[in-house]
Design brief:
- By secondary structure, the protein is α+β, with helices and mostly antiparallel strands.
- The protein is 50% helix and 16% strand.
- Helix 2 runs antiparallel to helix 3 (77-89), helix 6 (162-181) packs parallel to helix 9 (231-239) and helix 13 runs antiparallel to helix 14 (398-404).
- Strands 10-11-12-13-14 form a 5-stranded mixed β-sheet.
- It has 15 helices and 14 strands.
- It starts with 8 loop residues before the first strand and ends with a strand.
- The protein folds into 2 domains: 9-330, Ammonium transporter fold (Orthogonal Bundle), CATH 1.10.3430; 351-500, Nuclear Transport Factor 2, Chain: A.
- The protein is elongated, with a radius of gyration of 28 Å.
């Protein structure tokens, strides 16, 4: 004779707890592990209060809705996954790396988590949810709030290191176990292959994107390699597109769904020229396709008479060719690098005349390998560029400026030369540095790509010459400025802007 075990109760209501075999718990363990690595070793720009806000908002809303419907207190396993997924991908611009306990933008995390969860109940068709909750909530947030306030998780997490190896291991092993158990591995694999093929066509056009973690546009083969091996793409294919409630049920339909989704995402990513647009396009492909997933189950593609199979093959082949043509046509070349421009003046800088350079920790977050000797060499390049600027201003030769300057800095000094010729005098500054600090500058906004900035203090001497080269007057004063360096024309670091004062 067996005795039934009654369910636990709280305040008189049944409490429903998850089973240890629930795959949602296994998925939660993977995502929480990535969160822990992000906080301790990978330097994610997300804080603990932001993560907790997204999870709590989703969980509380789920508990309330479930209680109203069933009069039960149900553990909100799905909602907590939604909230943790939002916190894993959502970022508020201005959150500093290493700030574990900041509250900046916590309400945005809570809002996106709650709205994402709400779509599960509000956006339905015949009792079935239309979208993956975290997916549609994130895309809506990025589009509505814009790249000046928020951004998705980076494609590139950092250089090879043991935390990166551990992160890849957790994602791959956890993803393979969960998708195999749910019989969704074929969907994930087909999606990856289709996306890889589509982006190979895009990369073949020389497509580029700017990114906050790179001082150069990411182009061609580098673009393909970084995106296709990105941990973010792996998270997307293992844990977002494989939601059983928003994917077709039949294996063949899932393969067709994954293939279509991969090419659709590539098609949306092709016109994007910055990382924000590229990542939102990737997420947006799933938003567009999940509402029509039933289409993939209506008629098996490999069933029918030989004539029907032939014409289906013709249609599918033609559609694939058209899609490939569209990918190539839509691919945005993005910012490209011109051939290297070597300075016409060879000036040697004695490193002993420069102060020791301190380096901001943020520099280590860039896709850029700078050793101590490289930093000293970069400081010498700055000093050389400034000396060549001085010679260009003294000789009124803008061709020298074009060898070491670009963008706003080049325009400003060309205007200086032109106005000096009108006034019949040439103003020539020179700099003596007392301190130099190397940091990261987003001169064109965070999505415009990173630049390096030397924040320097010291003495600026301004000499004024007539057009024949005779010195008219000279004055000196302390200065404080940030010299922004980038590589817009190839290998040489050029001055692209000068910001008065220190950031």
């Amino acid at each position: 004779m067996s005795t039934a075990v009654s369910a636990p109760r709280l305040w008189g209501y049944p409490v429903v707890l998850p089973s240890v075999r629930d795959p949602r718990l296994h998925l939660a363990a993977v995502i929480i592990s990535i969160h822990i690595l992000g906080q301790t070793a990978l330097g994610f720009r997300v804080t603990v209060p932001q993560i907790v806000a997204a999870i709590l908002a989703s969980a509380i809303l789920e508990i309330v809705i479930t209680f109203q419907r069933k009069r039960q207190l149900v553990w909100p396993a799905s909602a907590m996954l939604t909230g943790s997924g939002v916190a894993l991908i959502f970022r508020v611009i201005g959150t500093e790396r290493g700030d574990h306990w900041g509250f900046q933008g916590w309400y945005l995390f809570a809002l996106v988590g709650a709205v994402s969860l709400a779509t599960k109940y509000l956006l339905t068709h015949r009792g079935s949810q239309l979208f993956n909750p975290s997916n549609v909530g994130l895309v809506a947030a990025f589009l509505l709030l814009g790249s000046e306030r928020v951004e998705p998780l980076d494609f590139w997490w950092g250089p090879p290191s043991w935390p990166m190896v551990l992160a890849y291991s957790i994602i791959l092993i956890g993803g393979l176990i969960i998708t195999t158990r749910l019989r969704l591995l074929s969907l994930a694999a087909t999606f990856w292959l289709a996306l890889a093929a589509g982006l190979a066509l895009v990369a073949g056009t020389g497509h580029c994107m700017t990114a906050a973690w790179s001082v150069q546009p990411v182009c061609g083969a580098d673009f393909w390699q970084i995106v296709m091996t990105s941990p973010e793409v792996l998270i997307f294919l293992f844990f977002m597109i494989t939601d059983p409630k928003t994917t077709p049920a039949a294996t063949g339909a899932r393969v067709a769904f994954g293939f279509t989704l991969g090419f659709l995402c590539a098609l949306l990513m092709a016109p994007q020229s910055d990382e924000f647009g590229t990542k939102v396009a990737l997420l947006g492909g799933l938003v567009l396709l999940t509402p029509v997933r039933a289409v993939f189950e209506r008629r098996p593609l490999l069933v029918g008479s030989p004539r029907r199979l032939f014409w289906r093959g013709v249609v599918i082949g033609g559609a694939t060719m058209l899609l490939g043509t569209a990918l190539v046509a839509m691919a945005a070349p993005g910012p490209r690098r011109a051939p290297p421009n070597v300075p016409a003046v060879d000036i040697e800088i004695d490193l002993a005349t420069l102060p020791p350079v301190t380096v901001d920790a943020e520099v280590g977050s860039l896709n850029l390998d700078l050793e101590t000797a490289d930093v000293a060499s970069l400081a010498a390049t700055l000093a050389q560029n400034l000396e060549i600027e001085s010679q260009a201003l003294r000789s009124a030769d803008p061709s020298l400026l074009r060898a070491v300057d670009h963008g706003a800095r080049l325009i400003a000094l060309e205007d200086t030369i032109e106005s000096g010729e009108v006034r019949k005098e040439r103003v020539v500054p020179s700099y003596q540095f007392d301190s130099l600090h190397l940091g990261v500058i987003w001169n064109n906004g965070i999505q415009g790509g990173a630049s390096l900035g030397f924040s320097g203090t010291g003495t600026a001497t301004e000499a004024v010459y007539d057009v024949d080269g005779a010195e008219l007057r000279r004055s000196s004063a302390p200065f404080s400025a940030t010299f922004v360096l980038s590589q817009p024309t190839g290998e040489r670091w050029m001055i692209v802007d000068v910001i008065p004062g220190q950031p």
